Amino acid sequence: MTAPAPLLFTPLTLRNLTLPNRIVLSPMCMYSSQNGLANDFHLVHLGQYALSGTGLILAEATAVSPEGRISPEDLGLWDDAHTLPLGRIADFVHAYGGRLGVQLAHAGRKASTYAPGRGRGAVPPERGGWTVIGPVGNAFSDLYPQPRAMTVDDIHRVTADFAAAARRAEVANLDTIEIHAAHGYLLHQFLSPLANARTDEYGGVFDNRVRFLLEVVRAVRAAWPAHKPLFVRVSATDWATGGWDLEQTTELAARLRDEGVDVLDVSSGGLTTAQQLQVGPAYQTRFAEHIRAQVPGLHIMAVGLIETPELAESVLQSGQADLIALGRPLLGDPHWPWHAAQRLGVTPHLPQAYQRGTRVKD
User: Fold this and answer.
1) In this predicted model, what pLDDT tens digit does every residue of 116-142 receive, in sequence order?
2) Which residues are listed as membrane-spanning (predicted)?
């Protein structure tokens, strides 16, 4: 008898998409785009994860409208011109057996800010900055831009922008979409009472605060092929008194499942400078575990300081999550899946061109 394969290297099927393993490149801004266009950097950056056998590659937060960019250097899908370079990357990833998705995002009041290392806070108009929008007119902090409160027409326009970006993702032949509703960006701003002080149908009670996200999900699900899976990233808690919390996230998760969401990517924080994080190895997996237990039929992805193969495997084996998203570990070691396979007793996935390098070491 042979030992069962590690769960980390067990395939997972989501609708018609089968992932070869449970390792996911978490979407991370690379600040390397001009006018939202992907370029050779993105081809090499994302392509390397296909070569190393990463189960699913999620491209960075990609703006659905120009004012939705976090920084001027972010990727975009607000224009048809953005589809061709993303399609080129998808072709490369698919040629090497990979799966490629994109995180669709709108930064709201946290938009028009400098990329790390290029300045702090708001980018002024003379440096390419723009007017930002949010649920109300409150800025994230003194360093961030002052937003214009969104009208209902603005909300409907942004919803349509998400749907249009989803259609472009399909033209680019991407395999999945993740809607970004975490880390203090626009959709999260509407969810949290700490950022959403509206008095109309998009503010106040829980049903109103989740309305915008649910409308976006419906629009994207209608625009995105039924045979392809849909992810949503949420912050399970604001880590702040009176904010968005795990109980509300769990209720939202059930509604997202019923709207056709296949995977909930469970992160936390980012909404307020008053947050009091409790950080440690796999510190967010308790949120993932709770939601997975309470919302059957929804796959859960865990993320956050899951740095070793052994820890990733234990999260899966304990039933806390179905997928593991890795950010910094894969940035620091693009061949993390090769090393993880060896440490867990599995033959690494190696393209033909790399098979002479099977003596991979940690």
Assistant:
1) 999 999 999 999 999 999 999 999 999
2) none
Catalytic residue chosen out of the listed positions 31, 144, 185, 202:
185
Residues 6+ apart with CB under 8 A from 83: 77, 168, 169, 171, 172
102, β-bridge pairs: 59, 177
Tell me how far CA of residue 22 lies from CA of 55, 316, 325, in angstroms.
Answer: 6, 9, 8
Name every residue whose Cβ is closer than 8 Å to that of residue 263 and which is 6 or more positions away in sequence: 14, 178, 229, 230, 231, 232, 298, 299, 300, 301, 322, 323
Cβ contacts of residue 259 below 8 Å, gap of 6+?
214, 217, 218, 221
Residue whose structure tokens are 């950022």: 195
Decide: 136 and 198 in contact? Cβ < 8 Å.
Answer: yes
Residue with tokens 């975490």: 182
Q: Is 283 a catalytic residue?
A: no
Residues in contact with 136: Cβ distance below 8 Å, sequence separation at least 6, in sequence order: 147, 149, 195, 196, 197, 198
Domains, the chain, in order of start with CATH, read 7-349 (3.20.20.70)
Enclosing H/E stretch for 46 = helix 40-51
Q: Which string of b and e fits 3-29 if b means at least 16 CB within 10 Å? A: eeebbbbeebebeebebbbbbbbbbbb
Q: 311: which 2 tokens?
A: 């820890």
Q: How many helices (H) and strands (E) does the chain have?
A: 11, 12
Residue (of 94, 102, 50, 103) closest to 337 by Cα position: 50
Q: Please name every residue paired with 37 in a beta bridge, in sequence order, or none if there are none.
A: 34
**Closest Cα partner for 133 from 186, 180, 175?**
186
- Tokens at 254, concatenated: 């059930």
Phi, psi of 180 (to 5 degrees): -90, 110
Instruction: Tell me the pLDDT band of 358, cut-offs 50, 70 and 90.
Output: low
Q: pLDDT tens digit string along 64-119?
A: 999 999 999 999 999 999 999 999 999 999 999 999 999 999 999 999 999 999 99
Q: Which residues lie closer than 8 Å to 207 by C-beta, 6 or more apart?
A: none
| Whole-angstrom distance, CA of residue 298 vs CA of residue 293 | 10
